[in-house]
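Question (not urgent): is this output format expected?
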Amino acid sequence: MTDRELISAAVKAAGFAYAPYSKFSVGAAVECSDGTVYTGCNVENAALGATICAERVAVTKAISEGKRAFRRIAVYADSADYCVPCGACRQVLSEFSPNIEVLCVRSDGRYVSYNLKNLLPQAFNKNFL
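Got this back:
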């Protein structure tokens, strides 16, 4: 799968977002190590702590199907800025794939690519337990 195909899946997922409070719809598409792709969108809640980000939706869908290793994730929002995962999402991604490639996409289709270790240096992990 190309970067553009993965990004297209994230853009489509953003269309399903439930974001009545922030009006900031986000879509994510995570590519597993076996090439399968799972998508997710943000789902807000009036009790803000119950809100879940698109990245975590995509990852938890994959995990619920038995996947545990990821190659790349594309994160998209209709924004002039690149859509970068929040800290909680970075930590969840790090739990399973600390070297995952993160494609951060803005509304004009331009994107930047990061290795998660650059976005979350010194991540808390199982070695600390």
